[in-house]
Amino acid sequence: MAKTIAAIDMLVKYLEHRIRNIKADTKEAYDIERGEIVDELKQLAERISNIDPIILPRLPKADLQDEVIRNIASVASKRTTMPPIYTDTTYNIGIQNIAVCLPKYVDFSETPGATIYGTNGWEEFAQKKMTHLLMSVLLSMPLGKVRLHFIDLNFSCKAQFFIDNFDRSVCNIYCDVQSAKGLAESLKTKMAQRLRGELSDNIYDFVVFLDFFNDYNNIGNAYRQIIEKGAFANIHTVFIFNDYNVEEGVYNPHIFDEDKFCFINGYTTLKDEIYYTEVFLSFANLSLAKDSDFRSKCIEYLNNGLQTEDEPEIDEPEIDKTEYAVTTSAIEAPIGKTTDGETVDFKIDVNRGHYHAFVIGETGSGKSRFLHDIIINMIAKYSPEDVELYLMDFKGVEFNPYRDIKHSRVILVDRADERITYEVIHELKQKMEERQKILAAAGASDVDEYNKMSADSHISQIILVADECQTLFTDNAKNTKLQNEMIATIALIAQQGRAYGVHLLLATQSLTNAPKLRSDILNQIGEHYILPCLPVDACRLVPEHEQNETERVVAQMEKGKGQCYYQGADGKFMFTFDYIAKGEQQDSLIEKARQKADKYETNGQIYFSGSLQYAMTGDTIDALATKGRRYLVASPGQSIAISQTPLSIVLRDEAGENMLLLGINDKQYVTRTTINTLVSMIASARKKGLDCQFVVIDCLKCDEEEPYMNILDSLEQSGLCRIVAPRQRKHTLYSLCKDIAAGTARPTVLVILGEETFRELKFDESLDIDANTKPNETNGMSSADNMSFDDALAMMNMLSNPVNETDGLKDIKTVASALKYILERGPENAVHTVMQMDRMDNYYIGNENGYVAAKTIYSHFAHIILLRSGEQDVLNLRLPDEISPAALEDNADRLRAYYYNESGNRYSLLTPYVMPSIEQIDKLIRKCAVLIGH
Question: Would you state the pLDDT for residue 772?
């Protein structure tokens, strides 16, 4: 169990001794003396907190927060072992009507790990305690000395706070069995190195099981040695306990053995039951689980270190007064000075061996400032026609200031979507191929020669700046095939990019988490800018014969001094880089650079952000209207590609041309995507002048009013769709079957929301319809008084096109058989179905004992949209390995989906549109052509 520490225990004994020895004749005198004692104890607690804010965390006043963080950093920088960590839980004791809350601690020097209670009703408690515990762990040690590894095989999203706020050098998440087992093997390697005396980095690794035992049962045996013996190598485990069951044959770590594991489960009353209190005394009152300005400052410190007062200042370049330098290819940007006062330039120059560069510096070294230094000086000196930047920031915070800079072709500030990263790198490959053709046609060997030869055209220098680049080379990528393609392209750029004006500027805090950074890439990068970092990381960059000297130099470097060790084509030397302060100074320089480039044309900048959302617009509909000629076109969202175009799905009048939207719908994300798909078809059909009716069967069981309901009501009131009442469902399906069989079906889109709760389909109810019955008795349409035009048209078709059993309807006697007929025969007759459902085993057509064959699905649906789904939910679709719906995030700001077309074996990643408002839909419709007559 979590426990208190000696210093706090002594304070409590002192308090108890003083209180029990109060000599007062009156209640008033007693209260005054007791108050003085309690105030004295509070002051003592403040003094302990000032000595070590992590040992006794107390929420500082607003004007003292920066000072407290500096104190935290100062104390942490001197530590080599982790102190006891406050768990944000307490012991409660009573001392003569004084309620005393004593902080509980976990001492990782005495325990292999901690267990946080999080079963039913305690989920929020567990989330908060985990957040506080791990934030405290990060703050307790020097920056870069703690790494968090979250195992989340069931996609609980409990680690989202850390994933959103910290870069991958601090925390990683493992969402599949293979990568989780890979982590276990790498940690065992660390244990072996520690045993052999080969490792003394004092780095603490914390493995956090977010859904114990559900996650654990899949990988428990792989972690046995780590759980039992990892502590001697500073490897600890944290269990978020949700279930009691360890499966047979899986190692049981006995996390409830309090002699072994620290158990965090709220407050404990130790003695003197507290029924009535007059005074409340709490020694620790800071919870890092609560959002606050102080927590935000802690996050900033953990990511970027402290801005120390002795960081070098620079004289602002007179950006607005200088002309751009003229160049055929060479780029030289001043970035600092040597001890002799000589200016040091960052260089890209193929004629002098400056091809690609690598910057390495751990947290607090100034790496991010150094990158800004390079970028700002480049865009200040060279025009957008000479320097074109592709900025990739996997920490998600550094490159946003360059959004309005015309030098920036692509800015990526997203850490999760591998597909986005692939698209950016793939465009660089395409650029190289295009430039290769241009150079070949001109007879030039490289861009420098071409620019000297050509007076009419000019090829820019493209520089890919990738901060936290280890993300590209990690061993826990969600899509290994895509990652391998990216790495191969980066290797191609490293080998051939120099000739075509495409260069790499990679940066990272550490290479520890970059096992796939291949030697054929590193060997092509000759410019090394080494800031304070682990010597082993620096040595991996430089040639073997330089490693001993590099290790010696790096071991003597200090953080916060602006120190950089250069090793490259210009030799090797130390220099002090110019420090452009974050905030007003940086913003001022960037703004001046922006103004200087005003006269230049934009290069069509593309900005990718994980929280970027798209809305369907008039431009979306205009783009759809140009697709598919006379066919219907749908768009569920925006494609994730450099082009940033709507994803267009053409529904041809051919077999199987239906759409299935599949995924967990607890937050209405699948419904939102389905509604947008419907609206896109309605608007684009009007724009193209197509005659088509839209029929909606809403089977969703919503307890409260949902936005989509108002949208459907508005569309129906405008005559743009018809919502089928529950009593009309059977008759509507059968009516469509008859029209399809007769060859007289009006072009129709049948939208089914919530197929899994379509009761008549689930129980395959009888249609109870006689094909020769008069239509007004069977069609389920409205009465004559309120009959819609669509209802009347359907009745006319049934009257004028009598169908008997010989026309293929004799087997259509149930709801399932009717829908199957529509799915199979409808598309060839311009009747298409758009179906929304939650999981494949709820597909009731062709379902045999809970299993639906992939062949059946793909014969009914040529187009499938996949949102986040459980692995088992889509297993029988037999999707390509690179499609992983289970790995998609369940977050409105980062919503993603796959589009899959089995016949073409092609897929795309997309961002579904946000749910449109009724006003937005009205605006879209008004922009389209006037609705054609029926």
Answer: 46
Question: Which has more pLDDT, 871 or 588?
Answer: 588
Give the pLDDT of residue 770. Answer: 56
pLDDT at position 799: 44
The per-residue DSSP string of 540-582 comes to: HHS-GGGHHHHHHHHHT--TTTTEEEEEETTEEEEEEE----T
Residue type, 286: L
User: Do 527 and 569 form a contact (C-beta atoms < 8 A)?
Assistant: yes
Residue with tokens 């976990």: 106
Please say whether the beta carbons of 483 and 521 come within 8 A.
no
Q: Which residues contact 819 (CB under 8 A, 6 or more apart)?
A: 733, 761, 833, 845
Mean pLDDT value of segment 476-482: 79
Total number of residues shown for the chain: 934
pTM of the model: 0.65
Helix (H, G, I), strand (E, B) or coil at 784: coil
The C-alpha atoms of residue 811 and residue 767 are separated, in whole angstroms, by 11
For residue 274, how many other CB atoms are within 10 A of its CB? 16
d(CA 274, CA 31): 18
Strands (E) located in 744-862 = 748-753, 831-837
Report the pLDDT averaged over residues 573-599.
88
Task: Specify the amino acid at residue 625.
Answer: A
Q: pLDDT exceeding 70 applies to what percent of the chain? A: 87
Q: Kindly tell me if the per-residue pLDDT of 782 is higher than 80.
A: no
Question: What is the C-alpha end-to-end distance of the chain, expressed in Å?
Answer: 75
CA 186 to chain CA centroid, nearest Å = 24
Tell me how far apart the alpha carbons of residues 41 and 43 are, in angstroms, rounded to a whole number: 5
- Mean pLDDT along residues 358-386: 92
Burial 542-566 (b: 16+ CB within 10 A, else e): beeebbeebeebbeebebbbbbbbb
E strand or H helix at 553? helix 547-555
Instruction: Report the pLDDT value the prediction gives residue 776, as an integer from 0 to 100.
Output: 36
Helix, strand, coil shares, percent, the chain, to 5: 40, 20, 40
Q: Check residue 401 and give left, alpha or beta (phi > 0: left; psi -120 to 50: alpha).
A: alpha
**pLDDT computed for residue 311 by the predictor:** 47
849: left (phi over 0), alpha (psi -120 to 50) or beta: left
Of residues 885, 871, 883, the one with CA closest to residue 669 = 885
Average pLDDT, the chain: 84
